[in-house]
Structures are given as structure tokens and as C-alpha cells.
Amino acid sequence: MKKLYICAFITLMSICISGIFSVDTHSNSNGAPAGSAGAPNDPANGCARSGCHSGGTTPRAGLINSNIPAAGYIPGQTYSFTISITEAGISKWGFQASPQSSTGALLGSIILTNINETRFAAGGGNKYITHTTAGNSGSTGSKSWSFDWTAPAIGSGLVTFYANVNASNGNGSSNGDQIFNGSVSYQEASGVGFETVSSSTFEIFPNPSNAGYFVVKGVSAGVHQVNVFDVQGKLVLSQQQAVEMQTISTNGLEKGVYFVSVEGEQSRTVKKLIIQ
């Protein structure tokens, strides 16, 4: 009888261990292995591969969104990113993203803003961001993950963000999952890296603003261009400023977050503006 209990215990433990490794292998519930962002120089080159997920890879526009202006990123500035997916009937998700140069080097710094749902991929340093176990579940039909990114040093040039998103069928295996991929490239803004307007002298007020205007104060001597971008990087307002303080109307702008760029001949500084 004792031997029978031992055999039953061993069998039960084998089933449990097998189940643990099956989930870990097929669903990658605690994040995708490093190198799975789908970049050309990634060693894994995506998620739809042998031993990971089957079902093929489909390009999907709009996976990656940021508030980097259309004019490009400013070295040293921090921007917000969102990886988002919509796919009917899916409630289990996964992703990996990475900002890289044309040679595959990490450009800039990824900043985790939700450690409950995102983490750095194991073995990849801080080059790849992926989901956690808590971050692979979401509302049926859609999922998003957010993080910040600090732009690299002056002269880094073009940066491309790559992302792979897994819309899992939740069957505990690698079969039948859908992998979607996308990439977005951002140029380094021209005219930066010379004489930057000091943040201590350049002010925006009231901020938040609900008065129908905002004031740009503390701009150095000379003619400057004041450009306002929405969170999608679209230029929504532009005017010249040749005085130290100038009032700018926000009529026609909807409530939300905007980015005000003050640009001189050899300077460019961006600040966030909230319109209520």
C-alpha cells in the first residue's frame, strides 16, 4: 500500500510539473524571450517560429503610438508610448517592443511606467520590454501596454521601434495563436544640440489652461517659432514670437494634452500643455 501511495504521488507531481512547463513554454505568460520584437537584427526574429507560437505573422498598422512630434525627437527628452491591439474574441495577449538603430543597437532608454503589467525581457538587458503575467490578460477584444522612452544623445539619427503582439487563443499550446507586427521610425529633430532655451526661463501658463489661451514667457531675444503638436504628432498651431512674453489663443483646440515647441535659429525646447 505504501508503494502505491508513492507511485500515485510521483504521477501527480509529474503531471503538475508537465503542466507548469507547458504553460511557460507555449504561452510565455511572464513575457516573451529577449529578441522577439520582430526587428531585422533580433536573434529570435519574432514570435511566430518553431518552439514559440504558430499561426503566422500579420503586419498591423497602428500597433505603436507615441507623442513624438512630426518634426522628430529631441535628444534627452522623454516621450510616452503605447502598444495597443484590437482583435475580436481575444482575451489573452502578449507583446515585445524595442527601439533600435539600423544595426540593431538599442537607442535611448525604455522606462517602465507600469511594473505590474510590463517588464524587461529576461536576458536582454533593458533593450526589450514585454508583458508580465498580470499584463497578458485584458478586456475581450482589446489590450494596451504603456511605457516611456528617453531619446538618445545628439547625433543618434533615425530610431525605429519594432513590436510583436500575440493574440492568443488561450488553449495552453502554441497552436493557433495570431502574431501581429509593426514598426515606426522617428527622425532626430533638426536644429537641436546647439543653444537650448533654458527650462528655468521658458514658461507656459496657465497650465493646465481653461481660459482659451496660454502665455509663453521667458523666450530669449530674437524671433522664435511657437509650434503646438497634438499627442499624435500633428501640428495644430504655429505662430512667430519676437517678444519675451506672448499670449497665444487656443480657440479651436479640443481638450487634451499638447506639446509646445519653441524654436529659434539654434535652439528648440518642448513642454507639455494641458487644455481643460
Short description:
Helix content is 9%, strand content 39%.
Description:
The protein is mostly beta strands and 276 residues long. It has 2 domains: 176 residues, Immunoglobulin-like (Sandwich), CATH 2.60.40.2410; 73 residues, Immunoglobulin-like, CATH 2.60.40.3080. It is 9% helix and 39% strand. It is built from 1 helix and 17 strands. The strands form 4 sheets. The protein has a 6-stranded mixed β-sheet with strand order 1-10-9-4-7-6, with no helix packed on it. The protein has a 4-stranded antiparallel β-sheet with strand order 2-3-8-5, with no helix packed on it. A 4-stranded antiparallel β-sheet has the order 14-13-16-17, with no helix packed on it. The longest helix is centred in the first third of the chain and has 25 residues. It is elongated. The termini are far apart. The N terminus is likely disordered.
